[in-house]
Specification:
With 241 residues, this protein is α/β, with parallel strands linked by helices. It has one domain: Rossmann fold (3-Layer(aba) Sandwich). The protein has 5 helices and 8 strands, in the order H-E-H-E-E-E-E-H-E-H-E-H-E. It has a 6-stranded parallel sheet. A two-stranded antiparallel sheet has the order 3-4.
Length: 241
């Protein structure tokens, strides 16, 4: 294959989405092998988002065995934890006359109001007891500022306050993030989108997530992620998972 043909081949396969995080050919039946430049981000797999919690995501507990299986394929893992103050600004109970899942304008923009959930130090805010992540190196706590919500692992909802995660990952040479956890259409999607914004390649492992799907939010989140270059894969696409 001469240089001209090689270039055309690479361009056509790239257009078809056949290249994975490492640049290796990713075609039907191929597997992605995360190396030391990849990180698995496990978003908010906490009691509050599991059946019986204060803001349950349907099927939330189902992600735990999938994430545990994925963990064996990753040298680097980061975990996030929703960590709200009592009376947090994102709670409907903090606003007279408001009900959960309504929306209001706060000083940083539109805010969905939630039931009280994941309050600091409570069992409701604890990570799910069955998570097994032996190579997890960092827990990012978010939503602990009383006046601003925080969905993304990278940046709070005011779009100004950084968690420091991007700098940490870049300092360690991480190039690619694989996002899992709860919920697909909120904290997972915001994390993946902000990963792209920060210059990382980003994948969402769909069967390792579950969604709230509030007023069409799931379809909207996937559309937005796709437009920003976030790749949608399954756990079976990861070698060793």
């Amino acid at each position: 294959m001469n240089d001209t043909h090689r270039r055309r081949f690479l361009q056509s396969t790239a257009a078809l989405g056949l290249f994975g995080a490492s640049g290796a050919l990713f075609a039907a039946g191929a597997k992605i092998k995360p190396g030391d430049k990849a990180v698995l981000i496990v978003v908010d797999v906490q009691n509050c988002f599991i059946d019986g919690g204060t803001l349950p995501v349907k099927g939330g507990a189902d992600v735990v065995p999938v994430i545990n299986q994925l963990a064996a394929s990753f040298q680097n893992i980061v975990v996030t934890q929703d960590w709200h103050t009592q009376g947090h600004a994102s709670f409907a109970s903090a606003h007279a006359g408001q009900k959960p899942f309504s929306s209001i304008k706060l000083n940083y923009g539109n805010q969905v109001l939630w039931p009280d959930h994941c309050v600091q130090g409570t069992d409701d805010a604890a990570l799910h007891k069955d998570l097994k992540l032996p190579t997890a190196q960092l827990i990012i706590r978010k939503g602990f500022h009383a006046d601003v919500d925080s969905y993304s692992a990278f940046e709070e909802a005011d779009r100004k306050t950084s968690t420091g995660l991007a700098g940490y990952l870049k300092a360690r040479g991480i190039k690619t993030v694989f996002v899992t956890g709860l919920a697909t259409d909120f904290c997972v999607a915001w994390t993946a989108l902000d990963a792209r914004k920060a210059g990382f390649d980003a994948y969402v492992i769909e069967d390792a997530t579950r969604a709230i799907d509030l007023n069409g939010s799931l379809a909207a989140a996937w559309k937005q992620m796709s437009a920003k270059g976030v790749k949608r894969i399954q756990s079976a696409d990861i070698q060793g998972a």
